[in-house]
Design goal:
The longest helix has 30 residues. This protein is mainly α and 260 residues long.
Amino acid sequence: MNLFFSWLTGWAAVAVAMAIVWLVQRATRRADWVDVAWTVGTGSLAVAFALASDGDGARRALIAALAGLWSLRLAWHLVARLRNSREDGRYVRLRRRHGDSADAWLFGFFQAQALLCAFFAAPALIAARIPSPVGWPEILGALVWAVAVTGETVADRQLRRFRDSSPESRVCRSGLWKYSRHPNYFFEWLHWWSYVVVGWQAPHGWLTLAAPAAMLLLIRKVTGIPPTEEQALASRGEEYRRYQREVSPFFPWLPREGSP
């Protein structure tokens, strides 16, 4: 099947699924479940792209496993965080900002998420079409994936333990959070490089670079760090401002002088 037609078909399928998720959020008033839908949609589409391609079977199986396990881990983490909470403050603010047109705006937002699902699943489609046997790029890609997913899992657990044992106003500085204000985001971004390492040898393999580049932009400038830190400043005030002065925002690094 033509590469672009395969991608277009996958995008259409996720767009329909996101429309259904939007209907659910209208009934429940919980737009934050779109984060789970994006994770499951991206992972499922990447798995489908890998299994339906005509490249080397071992590589296709590896890519499907990497994408599927990443999606399952992150979706499980998000479900655990959302199921016993109220709607995420980011989406509450969006509803207030858009007023009566909030549902219409959210429909467009959900469809943008469908497009992003197809965008981030594209590296799996490109890499899975390589006909040659697996070799060192696949080993290196799997190692990058393992480091990234392990790091993100550790960061998520450290933050959850801290929140379970500390007041709402406290700032987590333990473990990986001493070296980056957002180590979970850093390792999520690192994860997307695993598909670049595997897919670089494919025709049009350079296109796989678009995924980590776009993820870096989204995390640092759009949907990741800016709204997260806005909410942290609102709830933790001066303590979080001091944390911002002393700890790297994204890339792990030694804390500045004066940090505990």
